[in-house]
Each structure stands twice: as C-alpha cells, then as structure tokens.
Design goal:
By secondary structure, the chain is α+β, with helices and mostly antiparallel strands. The chain has one domain: 4-Layer Sandwich (Double-stranded beta-helix). It contains 6 helices and 16 strands. The strands form 4 sheets. It has an 8-stranded mixed β-sheet, with helices on one face. A 3-stranded antiparallel β-sheet has the order 13-7-15. Strands 9-8-12 form a 3-stranded antiparallel β-sheet. Helix 1 links the parallel strand 2 and strand 3 (about 40). It starts with a strand and ends in a 7-residue tail after the last strand. The structure holds succinic acid (SIN). The site of succinic acid has 10 residues, from strand 6, strand 15 and strand 16.
C-alpha cells in the first residue's frame, strides 16, 4: 500500500489495496492511518452494497443513522442524496457525525454512487491539529470543560432541516438526543488530544447557558479551521472515503445545483469518549 498526504495536516490517499478483499494486516494499517490522519481516500474501488456492509462489519458494529433515508434493500446503508430540483444538501456545514450520542459513532464509510458533472467535493479538518494550534490561554480556558451536544434542533419536525426541501426525506423527527462530552478528548487509539466541539451539534458548556457559552464556542469553532488542517476531496466514480469522527470535522460542498448526487454511507460504532 502507498500512502500520500492530501494536505499538510489532514487526510491521506491510499493506493494499492482493494477494500473488498484486504487482509487483516492491511485493515490494521488502514485503521491506523484513519485514526491518525482523520480521513483516508481510496480510488477505483469495486464495492457493491454487500461489500460495503461486509467491510463495515470488519470494524465492529454498524450504527444505523436515525434520520437519513435507508437504502431499500440494505437497511444498514444510509442514502445521502440530493435531487436536481432540491436546494439543500445533507451535511453542508462543518460538523462531526453523531456527537449528540452518548457513544458517538467512530466514523463513516462513504461511497460515491452518482456524482454531479462538477462540484460536490467534501472537506475535512483535523481536530488534533486544531487543538495544537490553539493559544496557551485558550487551552487553559477549556481544560476540564465539558459540553452538551444534541441534534434535536436540526432534525425535529420544526427543526433546521424541516424548514428546507430536505425535510421531507428525513426519518426520526420525534427522537430526542443529548450527550455530554469533554471539550478536549483523547483519541482512544492514538492518545492524541483532539478538540471535540462543533457548531452543528454543540449547544453549551456544562454549567453555562447557551448565551454564556456562545462566545467561547464560536471562538473555538473559528480557531478549529486553520490554513493547514483542511483537505478537500474531488470525488470520482469508484472513490471511497473513510473518516474518523473524533479526529475530524467534515463539510459537504453544495455547489452543484440542478444535478443529482447520491452517496451511500455506513456509520461505524464508536466507544465512549474521555478527556
Ligand atoms: C455527510 O456525511 O455529512 C455528507 C458527506 C458528503 O455527502 O460528502
């Protein structure tokens, strides 16, 4: 396998491996690359829905997403799609998936199924590099702090998505979510310190109201994006991206109005997070 960096501090492209038939030692190397670099990209993969599920199970459990439509014949696969006549896309702002769960999903395996003629790239940002780049003062202010995360304002019947043309596609609008996590976590496998808040799902710091929390939350989310900790993927047929939700944020570009884009996503079970 050959590994090439996508950006100075985020993402790798891995060549020379077939995900549907990789060995256990290749699998270990792939996992480690993703834990470390936040996302790994694989090109020219032949990967049926059955391969997707089989490969997902090799990571441990699959966390079926509660909100997105599921693929009709393969209910472990969430369909992330936008039709030519729709305006809003799924995941079109910086976020980390499932931070609103008590045990957030470890990551996702996203497979390109139908791509627009141009646009529809995905970006990732590395939260270890983000933490390292914080000033000493900011690091001291968030030491020991915990934050509350929820998805209710995003997915509920009168939530953010419901007010867009994406609302009609959602499931689970009556669900209630909520979880408290440390603002700085240690990666369960690499031990690296990672900034673990995001503008989509983090509401407040524990012991503070939303209003009291917003200035610091916004300061952290602004500081989390540096010049060197982001990478951008231009999808091609046969491209697969696998990312780690602890190590990275991601953001799906919505710049292909009038065209169809369909991606298939399996979300991988994670483990409890700790400072
Ligand atoms: C997401 O999982 O947030 C969407 C990613 C994408 O469609 O590129």
């Amino acid at each position: 396998m050959k590994t090439t960096a996508m950006a100075p501090e985020c993402g790798v492209e891995i060549e020379g491996v077939s995900l549907r038939s990789c060995s256990d030692s290749e699998m270990d190397a792939i996992k480690h690359a993703i834990y470390e670099h936040g996302v790994a990209v694989f090109r020219n993969q032949e990967f049926s829905p059955e391969d997707h599920i089989k490969f997902g199970r090799r990571w441990g459990g699959i966390d079926v997403n509660n909100y997105f439509p599921l693929q009709e014949d393969f209910n472990e696969i969430a369909v992330v799609k936008k039709e030519p006549d729709e305006q809003t896309n799924i995941g079109g702002a910086w976020h980390t998936d499932h931070s609103y769960d008590q045990i957030p999903a470890m990551g996702s395996i996203l497979v390109a199924r139908e791509l627009p003629p141009s646009g529809g790239d995905t970006m990732w940002a590395h939260m270890g590099a983000a933490y390292d780049a914080l000033s000493d003062d900011l690091k001291a202010r968030i030491e020991g702090l915990e934050a509350f995360h929820t998805a209710d304002h995003v997915y509920k019947a009168d939530g953010l998505y419901a007010q867009t043309d994406m609302g009609k596609n959602l499931r689970g609008q009556d669900l209630k979510t909520g979880a408290v996590h440390p603002v700085v976590i240690r990666h369960p496998h690499t031990g690296r310190k990672l900034l673990y808040v995001n503008n989509a799902f983090t509401i407040n710091f524990v012991g503070q109201t939303r209003e009291e929390s917003l200035p610091l939350l916004n300061e952290l989310c602004d500081a989390a994006l540096t010049d060197t900790n982001q990478c951008r993927l231009k999808w091609e047929p046969g491209t697969i991206a696998i990312w780690d939700n602890r190590t990275s944020w991601h953001n799906a570009m919505n710049d292909y109005q009038g065209h169809r884009r369909e991606m298939h996503r399996i979300t991988l079970s994670g483990e409890a997070l700790a400072a």
